[in-house]
Specification:
Bound molecules: magnesium ion, nickel (II) ion
Strand content: 15-25%
Structural class: alpha+beta
CATH architecture of one domain: Orthogonal Bundle
Largest sheet: 5 strands, antiparallel
CATH topology of one domain: Cytochrome-c3 Hydrogenase, chain B
Distance between the termini: 26 Å
Low-confidence stretches: 452-460
Number of helices: 17
Shape: globular
Oligomer: single chain
Number of strands: 16
C-alpha cells in the first residue's frame, strides 16, 4: 500500500512548515515536499501607508529578522528621498547589521542545529535542543549563548533596543553611539572571537569525522546569488549582485540590484504559499539558486578580514571538483565563518575615528516615485521595492525574502535526504529528524518568507492511499 508521511510542523525552525513524504508500496520514498502554508499578505496591507512608516512597519514581519527589514526599508527610502546618508550613519547602520548577523547565526547554529551534530540525530527529541546541549556540553552552550548576546547587545547599543528598533530613517539614523557603549563593546571583542574560534574548531572536527555523510547529505549543484563589493569581495550592507553557476562560472557580475526584476522571476506551486524565485535567464526550475552564507562564501573573492579569510581558505578546500562547496551541511560552517567576520567587522567599525560623530542625517528635498533597497540579511539577499505617489503614500510593495529564494533548494534537500534515510516499513523518529535537519541547514525563517509565527510539537501522520489517517506519532 502506498502511504504519505507528514512531518508537521517542522521543529527548530523559525515559523511553521510541514513536510510530506510519499512512499511507494515497498515503503521507499518516491517524492518529498516542503510546504509552507501560512499566508500573511504583508505587501498588500502596506499599501496606503506613508512611506516614512516602512522601516518600522515592515520589521513587524518577523521577531527574528526585524533589523534586516528595518535596514532594507531604510535603504529603499534613501533612494525615494534621493539622499545619501553621512558616513557615520552608514557605519552605524552596518554596525547594527553586523550585530544582527552575529546574533542570528549564533541562534541558528548553537540553539537550533548543534544539538543534532553534537548529541546525534537519534538522541531523544526531549534532549535534542539547547537545554540538552547545556546539560551535555555546558561550556560550548555558554559560548553560543554568549555570542548571541554579544550580537544582540551590539544592536541594542547602536539602535536603542534589540528588537524592532526605530533607528534608521530616510537619509541616515536618529541616534549617535555613546562612547561608553563603544568602549564596553570593544572590551568584549576578544572573548567573542575566542568563542567562535572554539565553535569553528569543533565544527571542522565534526565535518572531517563525518566527511562521507556530509558529502551525501543534501548535496547538489545550483546557482548562487548574493551581493558583493565591486571587486567581488564579501559585502552585506551594500554592493552589487553576483551570480555563479554550479560549476563556479561567473554568469552575472556587478549587476545593479535596482534591476533585480530582470534577473529574478518567481514561480508558484499550488501546494505552497512560498514562491519559488529563479534566475530568469535559466528558467524554472533549472535556474533555482541558493542564497545565504554558503552562496556568499562561494561567490566572493575574499572576505576582507584576516581571521575570516584564513578560514575561507579551508572552506574552499571542501569544494566538489575544485569548484563550489555544494553540501548543505557546509551552510553551518559558512555561518560560523560569517560570525567571525561579523566580530572582526564590529571591531573595525568601532575603531573608526568618526564612529561617535553626531552628523547622522542628510536632508532631502526631493521625492522619487520608486525605490529598491537590497541587503544581505543573515539568511541571504533581501529585496524591498516600494512605489509611492506624489503625497508619499505607498502604492505598491514587492518583497523578496532570503528564505524564499532557498525554497527550491530546501525541497531538493528534503527529497534527497528522505530517499536516502527514510524507510517507511521500519520508520524511526531519527530518520524524520534527518529530514528536518536538511531544512535547518538553510535556517529558513518562515515568518519572513510568508511575509507566521509559532512552534508546536512535531506531528508525523501516516496516511494510506485513500488519505485515511492510519497512525500518528507526536513528540
Ligand atoms: Mg513577495
Ligand atoms: Ni524572519
Amino acid at each position: 500500500m502506498s502511504r504519505v508521511i507528514k512531518i508537521d510542523p517542522i521543529t527548530r525552525v523559525e515559523g511553521h512548515g510541514r513536510v510530506t513524504l510519499h512512499l511507494d508500496e515497498e515503503g521507499a520514498v518516491e517524492a518529498a515536499r516542503f510546504h509552507v502554508v501560512e499566508f500573511r499578505g504583508f505587501e498588500k496591507f502596506c499599501e496606503g501607508r506613508h512611506f516614512s512608516e516602512m522601516p518600522t512597519l515592515t520589521e513587524r514581519i518577523c521577531g527574528i529578522c526585524p533589523v534586516s527589514h528595518h535596514l532594507a526599508a531604510a535603504k529603499a527610502l534613501d533612494v525615494i528621498c534621493d539622499v545619501t546618508p553621512p558616513p557615520t550613519a552608514t557605519k552605524l547602520r552596518e554596525l547594527m547589521h553586523m550585530g544582527q548577523l552575529i546574533q542570528s547565526h549564533a541562534l541558528s547554529f548553537f540553539h537550533l542545529s548543534a544539538p543534532d551534530l553534537l548529541l546525534g540525530f537519534d538522541a531523544p527529541p526531549a534532549k535534542r535542543n539547547i537545554f540538552g546541549l547545556i546539560a551535555e556540553q555546558p561550556e560550548l552552550a555558554k559560548k553560543g549563548i554568549g555570542l548571541r548576546k554579544f550580537g544582540q547587545d551590539v544592536i541594542a547599543a547602536v539602535a536603542g533596543r534589540k528588537i524592532h528598533p526605530d533607528f534608521c530613517v530616510p537619509g541616515g539614523v536618529n541616534r549617535a553611539l555613546a562612547s561608553t557603549d563603544r568602549d564596553a563593546l570593544s572590551a568584549r571583542i576578544a572573548d567573542a572571537k575566542s568563542w567562535v574560534h572554539d565553535g569553528l574548531t569543533l565544527l571542522r572536527g565534526y565535518l572531517e569525522q563525518h566527511r562521507e555523510f556530509v558529502a551525501r547529505f543534501a548535496t547538489f549543484p545550483s546557482y548562487y546569488l548574493c551581493l558583493t563589493t565591486p571587486d567581488g569581495d564579501l559585502e552585506h550592507y551594500d554592493g552589487l549582485l553576483r551570480v555563479k553557476d554550479g560549476a563556479g562560472k561567473l554568469v552575472e557580475d556587478r549587476y545593479d540590484p535596482a534591476n533585480y526584476l530582470s534577473l529574478i522571476a518567481e514561480a508558484t506551486e499550488d501546494w505552497s504559499y512560498l514562491k519559488f524565485p529563479f534566475y530568469r535567464p535559466a528558467g524554472y526550475p533549472e535556474g533555482s539558486y541558493r542564497v545565504g552564507p554558503l552562496a556568499r562564501l562561494n561567490n566572493c573573492e575574499r572576505i576582507g578580514t584576516p581571521e575570516a579569510d584564513a578560514e575561507l581558505a579551508y572552506f574552499r578546500s571542501l569544494a566538489t571538483d575544485g569548484a563550489m562547496v555544494e553540501a548543505s551541511m557546509y551552510f553551518h560552517y559558512a555561518r560560523l565563518i560569517e560570525i567571525l567576520f561579523g566580530i572582526e567587522r564590529v571591531e573595525q567599525l568601532l575603531s573608526e575615528p568618526d564612529i561617535l560623530s553626531d552628523d547622522l542625517i542628510a536632508e532631502s528635498t526631493n521625492l522619487k516615485s520608486e525605490g529598491v533597497g537590497v541587503i544581505e540579511a543573515p539568511r541571504g539577499t533581501l529585496f524591498h521595492h516600494y512605489f509611492v505617489d506624489e503625497h508619499g503614500s505607498i502604492e505598491k510593495v514587492n518583497l523578496i525574502i532570503a528564505s524564499g529564494q532557498n525554497n527550491q533548494a530546501m525541497n531538493q534537500a528534503v527529497t534527497q535526504v528522505a530517499r536516502e534515510h527514510v524507510r517507511g516499513n521500519a520508520l524511526e523518529e531519527a530518520m524524520l529528524n534527518k529530514v528536518e535537519a536538511a531544512i535547518r541547514c538553510y535556517d529558513p525563517c518562515l515568518s519572513c518568507s510568508t511575509h507566521a509565527l509559532g512552534q508546536m510539537p512535531l506531528r508525523v501522520q501516516l496516511y494510506d492511499v485513500e488519505q485515511r489517517l492510519r497512525s500518528e506519532i507526536s513528540r
